[in-house]
Structures are given as C-alpha cells and as structure tokens.
Structure prediction request, 337 residues.
Amino acid sequence: MGKILVTGGLGFIGSNLINLLLKRNYKVLNIDKVTYASNFYNVKNFDKHKNYKFIKCDLNNQKKLGIILSKYKPDGIFNLAAETHVDRSIDGPKNFMYSNIIGTFNILEILRKHKIKAKLIHISTDEVYGDVIKGRSKENGVYRPSSPYAASKASSDHLVSSYVRTYKIPAIVTNCSNNFGPRQHPEKLIPKLIYNILNNKKLPIYGKGKNSREWIFVEDHCEALIKIFKKGKLGEFYNIGSNYNLNNLAVVKKLLSLAKKKIILGRNVKIKFVKDRPGHDMRYAIDSRKIKKDLKWSPKINFNNGLKKTFDWYYNNQKYYLKLNRKDILRRLGTNK
Ligand code: NAD
Prediction:
C-alpha cells in the first residue's frame, strides 16, 4: 500500500503510529536519533515484522538523512522526531532548536534538492497557539507560543508552510492536543502519576492543578494522521482534538479512583502541589471541526476508557520503566522538574 518513513518512531506517538501503519499493510522505515525519550521496548511488538526497518539517524545529520531518503524513496513521511518535554526546553532550549527547527529544515531541504516527491505530514502541537482562556483555536488562529518547545514547533510549522508555498513541496501540518496512552515516557504527566501510584510515591502537581488540557487517546491521533495522509489537502493545517478538556487535578483524581479498584494504594500516594513551571499556559483548546467535516474523522475512544487502557498498559508493562534511564527518570519524577 505504500512506503512510509516515520521519524521519531521510537518515541510515544511514533511507535503507536507505526503499529497502526503495519496493521494497514504499509512498509515502514523508522529513523530515530535514539535520545533519552526513545525506547526500544516501544517497538518490541513489531521489530521483527517483515515490513518494518529501523535506522539510527539524527535529523541534524543532513548527509545521512539525504542518503536514506534518496535510497528509500518513500511515498509518505510522518515527521514526529522532536524534543518534546516542555520542562527540558526551559532548562536547556538548544537541543529543541536543533532537532525541531533545523531537523525539519533538513527534511525540507532534502525533499527540495533531491526532488523527492514524498508527501510530508508534519506533526505539530496545539501548544503553538499558546494560552486559550476562552473558546477554541482554529487552524487560522494566531500562533503565540509560550515555551521554547512550543516556539520551536511553531517555527518548524512556518518552515513547512513556506516550502509548500515557495517550492511546492507536498506537505500538510497537523496540530494535535495532549495525547495519552501506552508507551509514553514516564516524565510526562499521566505515566508519571501512574508510575508514582505503583511505586508508593507522592503525586506532584504544578501550582493548584488548575491547568487544563484537551486530552486525546494516542490511537485516535494516529488514525487521524493516516486519514490526513490519505485524504488531506496539500498545504493545509488540520487541528486534531477530542473537544474534551480536563484540568490536572481532575486527571489525578480519575487515576486514583481507577487505581483503587486494582491495587491497595501505598501510604505515600498523596497529591503534592509543587512550584509552578515558569510561563505555564493555563489552558489549551482547539477547534477540530475542519478534520471532522472535510475528512470525516472523529475520535473513537473517550477519556475514561482511554485512561483505563492506559493504566492497565503501564500496570502490565512495569518493566517498561526499567528499559529507561532510571536515574534520570527518578530525578524528574521526584520533583516534577
Ligand atoms: P517523544 O518525546 O515520545 O518521542 C520523540 C522521538 O523523537 C524520540 O524517540 C526521540 O529519540 C526522537 N528524536 C528527537 N530528536 C531527534 C532528532 N534530532 N533526530 C531523530 N530523532 C529524534 O515525543 P511524542 O510525544 O511521541 O511526540 C511526537 C511528535 O508529536 C512531536 O513532534 C511532538 O511535538 C508532537 N506532538 C506531541 C503531542 C503529545 O501530547 N505527546 C501532542 C501533539 C503533538
């Protein structure tokens, strides 16, 4: 059905996407720099699949990337490779500029110079719109990124859009809301809380826990990406969301009630409010009527069912954590920084 190149396929969304692409009979080449955020445990279900191949490659290595792309000649590229943790972008933004901006620039330059006709789906985030106190951001809304992470994603979106206009590169940008589900790195909110619940640790929450995010189950996001690849209009931006917002405190409470049904909670499992992240946006919310109307996509998994699947996955895959750099994780899990 087609040859696909996925960048960042050892990470959370990339590995879920590859899983789905293989089920749909696509041939997939995964390239990934293998940063701390990647995990070979994420691809263990399909790493022997006849249609799957992995090559270690940093998007900043333009020469190697050029050779891979020219040789493989993909029909489609899903660009997910990125530095993604907002806290890390505040501690040290440089890597974010290299991987997220220059990395995307390198892909675009290779497509332009080598005249590769692959359709590029560039995966971005709702964080580019910044704080949305009321209403929901539309695709033509103003970009007001607050963190270095969001700013680097915003820059890469603009680059893609400029290459569509100037060089007729066949590309589409997608802006998705907060994903949750299996295989996410445990420094992110939901896996972090589950890890701490399972390990009798406090549950660190920023500020007063009122920050609200629009939550989408990762498989719904991946289905939307495949639909956009197949039916999306070149040069367009598509928001992908669930229209369902919850604040962090409500997320913890839902997780605690799920956990209570399964395990006896340790005595240290208590919410601990910690000093807020600088520049922390209060609310993200997107309007995804465009993809629903034009491409007939809608999310299938509601938050409660998705959260149960997620909790069960981490519960059943506790060795997942052991495949990660424990020292680094524990440092972050303790302080939420
Ligand atoms: P992740 O951190 O779990 O995975 C990112 C992967 O990219 C890792 O495997 C990492 O090794 C790889 N990578 C990083 N820099 C690289 C480089 N220079 N070259 C090659 N590989 C590199 O991230 P994720 O949560 O799966 O997010 C994937 C994409 O989706 C990102 O572009 C992110 O901005 C976007 N996104 C994420 C969310 C979310 O809620 N997680 C929401 C909307 C959009």
